[in-house]
Amino acid sequence: MKPRHTVLPAVFLAFVSVAPALAATTGRMRGVCWEGAGRIDATNLAPLRDLGVDWISQTPFGWAPSLTSTEIRYRSDGGLWGETDDGLVQTAAWAHALGIKTLLKPHLWVRHGAWPGDIAMETDAAWKGWFAAYEAFIVHYARLAETNGFEALAVGTEMGKTTARTADWKRIVARVREVYHGKLTYCANWNEESEHVAFWDDLDFIGVQAYYPLATVGRPSKKEIEAAWAPVEKRLEALAKRTGKPIVFTEVGFKSHDGSLIEPWRWETDGAVDFDLQRDAYSAMFETFWRKAWFGGSFVWKWHPSQRPYGRDDRDFTPQGKPALSVIKAYYTGR
Fold first, then answer.
1. In this structure, are strands 61-64 and 29-34 parallel, antiparallel, or unpaired?
2. What is the C-alpha to C-alpha distance for residues 7 and 15, in angstroms, rounded to an integer?
3. Cα–Cα distance, 237 to 161 (Å, whole number)
4. According to the model, what pLDDT value does residue 309 have?
5. DSSP for 153-205?
6. What phi and psi values does residue 21 have, to the nearest 5 degrees?
């Protein structure tokens, strides 16, 4: 099957020809987590060029009825357009025209909001069934990535109770490599999962979902945030040295409200709006990691195709339209 090509509007191609060059001196991934939503067009991605972005991640979903079910459902043509196969391919084609690469990063969504990190089977037979279902799911997206020239693929994300089964995961990775020839990663949760995974040798880089708790108070100082990163940096450096693999923050993000750094993974947005806290959090993160030789880059969570009205995102993760954006741009463009 030949890769699909997208015909781009002349006005968009004109934009590409005059846009500033991306910073690409270190090879670090300068990424954002792209939100798959309704239909968009090429111009929705255009602001990423000025920001210095050279990677996006895209996330289609598989659906599990429960934490102990062996069933994984997925549809290539249903749900939000940006999560369908056609939406993923079209978005990647527009990104490629801007010189932006794609990390395809499938996730599992468990019914009733359960966390996929708690997926665990109760018998060996059930584990066999689960991995068979997961293989079918991830190989579908591996073929999609190969056919359409996606540069990287995550074989899994935040499934810590499954990753102890090293032999099963090695088999999954080997199966994926049969059909896909780009870079592979697994995206481990921040809570020490990355240090316990025993199949990093089979992958190209280590992915970390970097929602580390960085405060015990609502409004820490920047120096306090930097101090909270210090032990994390030491552990990750040791992991990089032990494995010989670069570490990429496949998700890193901070909400813009008071208290957001106490449990940064939470979706709730209860505190008062604090754009400066979000800015300081990004600044501390970049100052801690960006110039480390073993650090492979970051994907900012998250980027909406367009800014949403009425202050809807004032407390949300996105840095769009907030002071944190200037910090990200400074590091992503090298200025």
1. unpaired
2. 15
3. 24
4. 67
5. EEEEES-TTTTT-HHHHHHHHHHHHHH--SEEEEEEETTTHHHH-S-GGGSSE
6. -70, 145
CATH number of 25-333: 3.20.20.80
Residue 133's closest CA among 71, 68, 63, 65?
71
pLDDT digit string (tens) for 54-90? 999 999 999 999 999 999 999 888 889 999 999 999 9
Tokens of 175: 């199966």
Q: Token pair of 240, please? A: 């990089």
CA angle 161, 152, 46 (to 5 degrees): 120
CA distances from 312 to 219, 307, 309, 315, 318 (A): 22, 9, 6, 8, 11
- Which H or E run contains 311? none
Q: What is the Cα–Cα distance from 260 to 271, expressed in whole angstroms?
A: 8
How many Å apart are CA 137 and CA 128, to the nearest integer?
14
- Mean per-residue pLDDT for 95-105? 97
Give whole-number Cα distances, 60 to 13, 84, 86, 238, 300, in Å: 27, 7, 11, 32, 17
Whose CA is closest to 185, among 109, 106, 75? Answer: 106
If pLDDT is split at 50, 70 and 90, which confidence band does 3 have? very low
Q: How far apart are CA 9 and CA 133, in angstroms?
A: 40
How far does Cα 24 stand from its chain's mean position?
20
* pLDDT tens for each residue of 185-221: 999 999 989 999 999 999 999 999 999 999 999 999 9
Q: Is the pTM of this model over 0.85?
A: yes
- pLDDT tens across 224-245, in order? 999 999 999 999 999 999 999 9
